[in-house]
Design a protein that fits this description.
The protein has about 475 residues and is an alpha+beta fold. Among the domains are: about 160 residues, Beta Polymerase, domain 2, CATH 3.30.460; about 55 residues. Helix content is about 55%, strand content about 10%. It has a seven-stranded mixed β-sheet. A two-stranded antiparallel ribbon has the order 6-7. It has a two-stranded parallel sheet with strand order 10-11. β3 and β4 form a beta hairpin. α7 packs antiparallel against α10, α12 crosses α13 and α19 packs antiparallel against α20. The protein starts with 12 loop residues before the first helix and ends in a 12-residue tail after the last helix.
Length: about 475
């Protein structure tokens, strides 16, 4: 790379450690505050002679020694009774047809909320997502309608007692994901549970109960009946979890779910054992939680060989999963940036520097690092260049992205006739500046005079990457 700026010192390690410690401490403090608030919600309900328990994922996480990100409370109080107890200003009906009320309050500068759901038994699921009716019922029947045993356990935080009607504690101890009751019935109620089973298994490093696994394989093709947005949400979560994403993809592939929702990835894994193992190893070693980078890494074998065309596929997957414009742009950028990053040791700075302005440059560099590490050839020069890019990014942006020395005002001052060549001159001038041919205003004027006098061809710069 030519004419790159000199790196400056990074933030001292001591300050980085302090900043990280403060962040962790703040997170712990917020988690403690939320739990205390959830206990208070339970206490208020029980003081009115209602049953109230922690329910679902928060119970599972605490049994496993993890810190829940949110708390749900299950009660025999109806939604109207919950709202009457906490008042309309502190409670919001978010699913009154299903008995769910959000109880919220602001404390110590934190916005706290707990979802309070009435114990219920569901009617038939005619749309494969939501029941057509619900009946408010007992804790035991409420547990029976939930998805997996690990999510069907209740906990009374007042007397510190676990209430388990589905042997969820046993399955947590045995590290097993098991559907509650008949797995075919559970998955028919909500086909998204097919993906949720895989996500929970991979997230916790558990095994799938045999009957549950057989039902997943038998019903895999029905996952397409789920809305694209819900499928995308599950895939984001699975591919974002570094330590579990390989197991997730393997289970998706073996069950047939991957072919149903991402047949392009299934085709890569089906091509040969060598490609399958390399692709799985690649997403396993990827040192980022970024799900878009993981998706690119999974498809890389076909992306780099152009069996999958990046721009076309980014549009396809955006439409298929209803992704945001930003997610589509990130996918395309991470793929196309590789053509420069993988040869950044000898590429002109004017072609590499614009990449650093992208908000997704770290994602692209992360994949480049991974691809270089799995290459059998000597790529030491490229690795040094990538390290240099990282150091460059740690500097003030004005150092490596200086203000243009050639702009419209200078062209007007030099009486250059206004016309279509303005944009080309400005663009070529920027290239010359970045590549070290122009250092100051005097150089800029001289470059312009030479270019205009000699009538050098004004070739548009086509190196921009979306």
């Amino acid at each position: 790379m030519n004419s790159t700026p000199n790196p400056s010192n990074n933030l001292p390690n001591e300050l980085q450690v302090v900043d990280s410690s403060r962040s962790v401490e703040s997170s712990r403090s917020q988690a403690k505050l939320l739990r205390e608030y959830a206990i208070e919600v339970v206490r208020v309900l029980t003081s009115r002679n209602y049953i109230a328990y922690f329910a679902g994922g928060c119970v599972r996480d605490e049994i496993m020694g993890e810190t829940p990100s949110d708390y749900d409370v299950a009660t025999n109080a109806t939604p109207e009774q919950v709202q009457q107890i906490f008042g309309k200003q502190r409670s919001l009906m978010i699913g009154d047809a299903f008995g769910v009320v959000c109880v919220h309050q602001r404390r110590s500068g934190q916005s706290l909320q707990v979802e309070v759901a009435t114990f219920r038994s569901d009617g038939s699921y005619i749309d494969g997502r939501r029941p057509d009716s619900v009946v408010f019922t007992s804790p035991e029947l409420d547990a029976q309608r939930r998805d997996f045993t690990i999510n069907g356990v209740f906990y009374d935080p007042i007397i510190e007692k676990t209430i388990d009607f589905v042997q969820g504690q046993e399955d947590i101890a045995s590290r097993i994901i098991r559907a509650i009751g008949d797995p075919f019935h559970r998955f028919a109620e909500d086909r998204l549970r097919l993906l949720r089973a895989v996500r929970f298994t991979s997230r916790f490093g558990f095994s799938l109960d045999q009957a549950t696994w057989q039902a997943i394989c038998a019903m895999a093709d029905r996952i397409v009946e789920v809305s694209p947005e819900r499928i995308a949400t599950e895939m984001r979560k699975m591919l974002s979890f570094r330590s579990g994403r390989r197991q997730a993809v393997e289970l998706l592939h073996q069950s047939g779910l991957l072919r149903a929702i991402l047949h392009e990835a299934a085709a890569v894994l089906d091509r040969s054992d060598a490609i399958r193992l390399q692709s799985l190893s690649r997403i396993e070693r990827l040192p980022t939680n970024n799900w878009i980078v993981a998706l690119v890494a999974l498809l890389w074998d076909d992306l780099q060989s152009n069996k999958i065309e990046a721009a076309s596929f980014s549009n396809t997957i955006k439409d298929r999963w209803r992704l945001s414009n930003e997610e589509e742009l990130e996918f395309r950028f991470v793929v196309t940036a590789q053509q420069w990053l993988l040869r950044t040791d000898n590429a002109p700075w004017s072609q590499v520097q614009p990449l650093l302005l992208s908000p997704h440059i770290e994602s692209a560099i992360c994949l480049t690092d991974l691809l270089l590490n799995e290459s059998e050839s000597d790529e030491s020069a490229v690795k040094l260049a990538i390290d240099h890019l990282r150091k460059t990014l740690s500097q003030e942006i004005a150092i490596w992205n200086p203000a243009p020395l050639i702009d419209g005002r200078l062209l007007i001052e030099l009486k250059v006739p206004i016309g279509p060549e303005y944009a080309k001159l400005i663009r070529l001038g920027r290239v010359a500046q970045l590549d070290g041919l122009i250092h100051n205003d005097q150089d800029a004027r001289q470059w312009l005079q030479t270019t205009l006098t000699n009538k050098l061809p004004l070739v548009p710069d086509d190196s921009d990457i979306d």
